[in-house]
Write a structure and sequence with these properties.
It contains six helices and 21 strands. It has about 450 residues and is α+β, with helices and mostly antiparallel strands. Strands 1, 2, 4, 7, 8, 10, 11, 14, 17, 18 and 21 form an eleven-stranded mixed β-sheet that branches. Helix 2 crosses helix 5 and helix 4 runs antiparallel to helix 5. The longest helix has 22 residues, at about 420-440. The two termini are about 25 Å apart. It binds heme C. Heme C (HEC) binds near residues 57 and 71.
Length: about 450
């Protein structure tokens, strides 16, 4: 079973140590001064400029000192509250390593605070890092797709309009037989600045003729598609349709927007060894959220009947969503034994306007035995303190509309045979041993 490293105390200690050092060194040693050029610019390059540059979704550019200076106080406030960059994983719980994690460490936040409090000094131009080069958004980063579809027609975002969350159909994918996806990318092709997110979902009929849906891929600024590991792929079911769930945000000028999905397929007749699945888990459709109440808790459970490797987690809640945790409950070693359990991820401040799929690092992906129970707990805030709440005086229940609510996680995983499971655990242990050996 995977062992998590739990060190919430360590980062706190580091922060205290840092503050202590700052206190004692004050005013005597100016080389200790935090400056834009030396300390702040590299952080903004890594974690902010993807969005905060001209033509992108950030409301202002954070490329140069001149751009950044007027925002120093606002930046401090946003990073201290951990609102920016958008990344709402609870850092004190469960897995800590993700692909493309832009979040800031406690030290970085302390540094930004100190810099803003000191009047946001520019520092020595010679310390500035080379400007960051940005990926070309016009290019398909997964290589040349076999299928490209766009929304049936552009969606017009008026100059001034409230934020909109809409589901829009794309053109037909035109797949007549089941195929396997090797790579997939979603990107805006028009109106980049108004598209805050675009999540592509596949709708299809299963073998019993039941309507099913599955998360295909999300667009996030700075994310350039998913290329599945060798021998791993997704099913693209015959006749599948794609719907885009989009969060659109007005920018002061009428802006037509459109997005495209590009899909690279494995050759016809080739079946990858591992099939990645994205499905709802821990659904609960029987709950009531009373008016003017927060911390309303809802639990749901699903079971993995075979061993599996979990690659990504995304909470799915609507307007009243407040937080969600995913806990794994493992089968006990003996019948009627106590079931060991582990919370792998929590999003402790759910933001309805950011759809983020949290992709685990290869070395952190939970490898779980057959019979593992996926326990999803959600909390809801139906008070006026929740800025997305359209009406705190209404009770809320499960439903399809945005103003109803939902409680489940999208989980992405693939099943393993018993042998593959044993092998994956052995590889994980060997790697961890090597890592610990390197520390001594
Ligand atoms: C994924 C895109 C994205 C990233 C990455 C990002 N931002 Fe933002 N930021 C936004 C958007 C969109 C808004 C406006 C809407 C909102 O607040 O959610 C915003 C708002 C802000 C604001 C508030 C502006 C105002 O009008 O008061 C500040 C300050 C800010 N960001 C700073 C940062 C900093 C500093 C970083 C990096 C540490 C960062 N952002 C990373 C997209 C992003």
């Amino acid at each position: 079973m995977p062992r998590m490293l739990r060190t919430p105390g360590a980062s706190l200690l580091a922060l205290v140590a840092l503050c202590g050092a700052v206190e004692s060194g004050r005013a005597q040693n100016t080389s200790d001064q935090v400056t834009f050029a030396k300390d702040i610019a590299p952080i903004l390059q890594r974690s902010c400029q993807n969005c905060h540059r001209p033509g992108n979704i950030g409301p202002m550019s954070l490329l140069t000192y001149q751009d950044v200076r007027p925002w120093a106080r606002a930046i401090k406030q946003q990073v201290v509250q951990r609102n920016m960059p958008p990344w709402y994983i609870d850092r004190a719980v469960g897995i800590h390593s993700f692909k493309n994690d832009p979040s800031l460490s406690d030290q970085e936040i302390a540094m930004i605070s100190k810099w803003a409090d000191a009047g946001a000094p520019q520092g020595n131009a010679a310390d500035l890092p080379a400007p960051r080069k940005f990926e070309d958004g016009d290019r398909w980063h997964i290589g040349k797709p076999d299928i490209i579809v766009t929304l049936k027609k552009d969606v017009l975002v008026k100059a001034k309009a409230p934020d909109q969350w809409v589901d829009l159909p794309t053109e037909d994918l035109g797949v007549k037989i089941n195929r396997y996806i090797q790579a997939v990318e979603v990107k805006p092709i028009k109106g980049v600045a108004v598209v805050h997110h675009a999540v592509a979902t596949m709708q299809f009929e299963d073998e019993q003729g039941n309507e099913q849906q599955s998360l295909l891929e999300e667009y996030a600024v700075g994310k350039f598609g998913d290329i599945y590991a060798e021998n791993t792929g997704r099913v693209l079911p015959a006749g599948a349709k794609v719907t885009m769930n989009m969060h659109l945000h007005a920018v002061g000028a009428d802006t037509p927007a459109n997005v495209a999905v590009g899909i690279k397929l494995y050759p016809e007749g080739y079946t990858p060894k591992h099939i990645e699945i994205s499905q709802h888990v821990g659904d609960n459709e029987d709950f009531d959220i009373p008016p003017n109440t927060k911390n309303v808790r809802v639990d749901g459970y699903s079971v993995l009947l075979k061993p599996a490797r979990i690659t990504a987690f995304q909470p799915h809640l609507h307007n009243r969503g407040q937080a969600q945790c995913l806990e794994l409950i493992y089968p006990p070693a003996q019948s009627a034994g106590r079931a060991p359990k582990e919370t792998v991820s929590c999003v402790d401040r759910y933001h309805f306007d950011w759809h983020i799929v949290y992709h685990y690092d290869e070395d952190a992906q939970p490898i779980v035995p057959a019979g593992t129970i996926l326990h999803v707990t959600s909390w809801f805030d139906n008070t006026a303190g929740n800025k997305f709440n359209p009406d705190p005086s209404n009770p809320v229940a499960f439903g399809q509309r945005t103003i109803d609510d939902m409680s489940f996680s999208w989980l992405t995983f693939y099943y393993l045979t018993d042998d593959e499971y044993r092998q994956a655990l052995e590889d994980r242990r060997a790697k961890q041993k090597k890592l610990t050996a390197g520390l001594h």
